[in-house]
Q: What sequence folds into this?
């Protein structure tokens, strides 16, 4: 079966050990996965981060350090492992320079499984046996640092450092990581505390207090920093705090380990704090070196057209007037919501920090991100629409960490522009409505319990006076304000936490209603069955395509298939900038994907929508309702769309057999006639008469002389043929392709069909061979025979073609099988003879003659 390409989805990595700090249900990782997924926070995968075989990772005491006798950069250490090695100290060869006698270090013994999955073995290093490894941070998965080994007294002074004790309680060396798929409507779950709240609601396990509940900051204007916001529509809230006497250095190991497990790279304590707080709260932050902010003043404004900003990734980017920048007295320092600037970044010399936490307009951040081709952790959160209230959550947590980890002094005051809280939304939840929507009652007390667990404020409305309905009055929390706006949203919250899997299977109440497939739908299914019956696999390609792919098909700029392409105003990428005008690109994409993976025998079809600028009315051959709808859509959007059927064959079209002559070379390959056979089988299933005629001017992507037009009642509905050799952008050798207007094909199949008697009277069969000019198509010959045969001619089929000296130059012999039948009687030779004579006369009019 052909391979299909997967789509992509957003993700968030949540270390389980970090999550359990805020909600720790009595479930293993798979139990948590099941509850999270069943309540809507889908767990895509479970990863293990760090080391395995934890009993092989121990605390060791350094007894002696001596130079390696055969290597200048190595030392030989005697390590005390206590009761874990009763036979005495272990000898370990190490290359670090900071090994000190009397200190405690992290040891991996032979048999330990390292972060990369490798198993540690005993080794000889320059002639000295080594019974393990003294570990650096990267060798435990804590960070990427490898320069020095870990001295445990420096990082865990209060831990039990008895030689031979397990290392796991001392250092965070292993955790499971949940890879979550976060839907765009749940930005609150882009923070670990938000995920913990979901787990609390799903399991009933206690939820720890919010980590931002203790705020060391104060109100008022801080000294030494000013902020002005000139575009409040794009920056609803901007907060900032000043930290002095900041010491920039490495973060503690617990912080590094959490960031690394969550997919972040530790840099220094200030930058790590911003990333840590973002992961925990879901709110991005940015730290400015206040001494490098010219004038000590920041201005938030729209960029000017063509303005350039150098960002932290070392690139200079050109902006337009719809983007937002943050500038100081010397010009822009960062692109708002995406990335900071290089000029004011925190470094080892930083002594004062301005911590900025702002709220940005989501759609504007999304547009800026795609326009610049710059996507960051911050932009992926802002574009989904964060609540302005989250700014102070992040400020409070960041302030506590800056004081604890950087020795900083928080200056009095907080800059807070646009921080007026929005009015809280209140929704009345009716008990009767919950039961009507879900098909089963949920106790009012259970509804209130679920909503309170999700941070909604709930008040029992009691039994209201006549005219009202009993239920709950629910106040929506700030972080869910954009998503939960009506009663149905609250019912969804109740259903997913109470358990969608527990809802009974019920049918909606529809008295007197019945349903059936329309004639077009029945034909559509028949078409699918016919194609699958021919051994084809259905594929689903992108609705979008790239302009260069149309160019690769050799379409000129004036060709309707290229000139009529509709450009997207806000494409996902350059490869998806146009609405497709043909299914050929997506079929070739899938075929090339399979060929590159060794699957060269392909039989694919796709049914999908193609688009073009509405330069002409919709086809008259579609059904009346569809025609009206297409005309309406084209009139409103300027885009005409229709369903199209595309087929691609490549490689061999028959499976291998011992009867093949000459091995694989004797098997039938994909070509014009194999594809025509698929078309005839499809039309036969739909009982539609189509004609395939040679096309003197085929589309430029088809091989001249091996292409045809598909006709119904004299009108073209598509094309088929072998791919032109110059279409080389897709490496699909020997492909034959076809595309036709499916709506018009199905419309031709809706006409009523009659039935004829095929069994009461036997047929009379005769074979003839006619020699005709080679340029006359076989289809024209068959048409002439049918016209001359009249009612008694039941069928005609071409079964052999011969060219050679016996029939003359530029002529060929067509062997045809004729079937005569009457629904009233058994035919005789005398009755068929006049019909045969008319057929011979028709052949002579084409310049042919019967072959003796």
A:
């Amino acid at each position: 079966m052909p391979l299909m390409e997967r789509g992509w989805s957003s993700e968030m990595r949540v270390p389980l050990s970090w999550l359990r700090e805020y909600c720790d249900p009595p479930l293993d990782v798979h139990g948590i996965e099941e509850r999270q997924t069943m309540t809507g926070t889908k767990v895509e995968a479970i990863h293990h981060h760090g080391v395995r075989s934890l009993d092989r990772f121990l605390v060791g005491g350094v007894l002696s350090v001596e130079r390696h006798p055969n290597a200048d950069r190595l030392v030989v250490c005697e390590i005390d492992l206590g009761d874990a090695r009763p036979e005495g100290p272990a000898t370990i060869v190490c290359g670090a320079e900071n090994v000190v006698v009397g200190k405690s270090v992290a040891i991996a013994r032979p048999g330990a499984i390292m972060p990369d999955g490798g198993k540690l073995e005993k080794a000889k290093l320059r002639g000295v046996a080594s019974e393990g490894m003294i570990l650096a941070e990267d060798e435990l998965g804590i960070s990427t640092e490898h320069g020095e080994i870990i001295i445990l007294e420096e990082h865990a002074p209060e831990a039990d450092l008895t030689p031979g004790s397990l290392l796991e309680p001392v250092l965070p060396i292993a955790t499971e990581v949940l890879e979550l798929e976060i839907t765009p409507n749940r930005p609150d779950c882009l923070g670990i505390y938000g995920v913990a709240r979901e787990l609390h609601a799903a399991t009933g396990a206690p939820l720890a207090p919010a980590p931002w509940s203790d705020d060391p900051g104060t109100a008022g204007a801080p000294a030494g920093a000013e902020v002005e916001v000139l575009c409040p529509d794009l920056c609803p809230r901007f907060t900032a705090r000043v930290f002095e006497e900041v010491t920039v250095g490495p973060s503690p190991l617990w912080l590094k380990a959490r960031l690394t497990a969550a997919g972040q790279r530790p840099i220094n304590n200030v930058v790590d704090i911003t990333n840590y707080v973002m992961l925990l709260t879901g709110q991005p932050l940015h730290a400015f070196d206040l001494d490098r902010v010219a004038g000590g003043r920041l201005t938030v404004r729209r960029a000017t057209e063509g303005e350039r900003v150098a960002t932290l990734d070392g690139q200079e980017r050109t902006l337009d007037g719809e983007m937002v920048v943050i500038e100081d007295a010397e010009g822009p320092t960062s692109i708002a919501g995406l990335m900071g600037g290089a000029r004011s970044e925190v470094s080892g010399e930083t002594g004062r920090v301005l911590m900025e936490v702002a709220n940005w307009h989501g759609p504007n951040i999304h547009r800026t991100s795609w326009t610049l081709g710059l996507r960051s952790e911050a932009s992926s959160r802002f574009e989904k629409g964060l609540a302005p209230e989250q700014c102070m959550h992040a400020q409070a947590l960041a302030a506590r960490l800056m004081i604890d980890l950087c020795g900083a002094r928080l200056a009095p005051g907080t800059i807070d522009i646009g921080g007026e809280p929005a009015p809280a939304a209140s929704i009345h939840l009716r008990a009767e409505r919950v039961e009507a929507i879900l098909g089963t009652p949920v106790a009012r007390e259970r509804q209130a319990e679920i909503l309170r667990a999700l941070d909604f404020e709930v008040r029992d409305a009691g039994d209201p006076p006549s005219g009202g309905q009993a239920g709950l009055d629910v106040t929506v929390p700030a972080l869910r304000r954009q998503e939960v706006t009506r009663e149905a949203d609250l019912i969804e919250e109740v259903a997913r936490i109470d358990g969608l899997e527990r809802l009974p299977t019920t049918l909606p109440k529809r008295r007197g209603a019945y349903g059936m497939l329309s004639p077009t739908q029945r034909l559509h299914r028949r078409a699918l069955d016919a194609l699958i019956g021919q051994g084809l696999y259905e594929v689903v390609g992108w609705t979008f395509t790239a302009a260069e792919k149309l160019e690769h098909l050799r379409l000129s700029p004036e060709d309707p298939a290229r000139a009529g392409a509709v450009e997207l105003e806000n494409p996902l990428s350059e490869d998806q900038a146009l609405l497709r005008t043909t299914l050929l690109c997506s079929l070739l994409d899938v075929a090339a994907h399979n060929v590159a993976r060794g699957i060269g025998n392909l039989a694919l079809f796709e049914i999908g929508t193609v688009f073009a600028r509405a330069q002409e009315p919709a086809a008259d051959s579609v059904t009346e309702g569809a025609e009206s709808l297409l005309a309406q859509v084209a009139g409103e959007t300027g885009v005409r769309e229709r369903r199209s059927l595309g087929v691609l064959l490549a490689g061999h079209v028959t499976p291998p057999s011992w009867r093949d002559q000459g091995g694989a070379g004797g098997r039938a390959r994909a070509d014009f006639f194999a594809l025509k056979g698929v078309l005839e089988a499809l039309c036969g299933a739909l009982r539609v008469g189509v004609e395939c005629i040679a096309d003197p001017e085929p589309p430029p992507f088809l091989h001249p002389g091996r292409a045809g037009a598909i006709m119904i009642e004299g009108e073209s509905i598509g094309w088929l043929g072998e791919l032109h050799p110059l279409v080389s952008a897709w490496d699909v050798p020997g492909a034959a392709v076809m595309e036709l207007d499916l709506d018009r094909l199905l419309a031709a199949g809706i006409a009523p069909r009659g039935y004829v008697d095929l069994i009461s009277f036997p047929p009379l069969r005769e074979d003839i061979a006619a020699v005709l000019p080679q340029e006359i198509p076989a289809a024209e010959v068959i048409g002439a025979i049918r016209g001359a045969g009249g009612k008694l001619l039941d069928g005609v089929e071409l079964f052999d073609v011969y060219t050679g000296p016996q029939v003359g130059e530029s002529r060929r012999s067509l062997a045809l099988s004729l079937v005569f039948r009457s629904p009233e009687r058994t035919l005789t030779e005398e009755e068929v003879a006049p019909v045969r004579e008319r057929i011979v006369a028709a052949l002579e009019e084409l310049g042919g003659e019967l072959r003796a």
About this structure: Confidence is low (pLDDT under 50) at residues 1-9, 617-630. The longest helix spans residues 390-406. The radius of gyration is 38 Å.
